[in-house]
Amino acid sequence: MNRTKMLAALEGLLYITGDDGLTPDEIAYVFEITPSEAVDLLESLTDMYDNNLRGITILNTANNYKIVTKKEYVEIYRKIYANINKTRLSNASLEVLAIVGYKQPITRAEIEDVRGINSDNIIRKLMAMSLVKEVGRLDTPGRPILYGTTKEYLDYFKLSSLEELPELLDHIEIDNEMEKDLFNNLTKLKIN
Fold first, then answer.
1. Is the whole-model pTM more than 0.90?
2. Which of 66, 138, 169, 172 could be a cystine partner for 21, CB 3.0 to 4.6 Å?
């Protein structure tokens, strides 16, 4: 693969890994290159972003690289989320908020295991709205980010603490009467 295609593929990899980002070792593995060559690719991509009036750049935190928005445009980005109470959240966003609220601290991968679908963009949006925040890192390989709720989360749902969240039901016991009602309702649906 030539360098131009590697840069394009690297950009895509950084995008899909979202806040988890990638290390030079992970990039080296994917492209079958050395870690120092991976760092060189990352520096080239960063230069492309920084020298071409782009709204994004690459952030290196403890040898972990990820795509982030540029700080100089933060006020523009915030306008879209200026009043979260007026922002209608999608069902998917509400689902992620519920998962984080009940299971925190939780990683992106754990959220996606519950949902069965990629949640990067939703997590980014919820972080931009200050409803979800990074609360640490899991002490496992890759050190994935742990997410938790914020004061704004409580405000949004008009809660004073997380203890006010409704209790989750692990299972529902169906007694014989409920089973008969369910059977009768299903039978009526089939007849009509």
1. no
2. 66
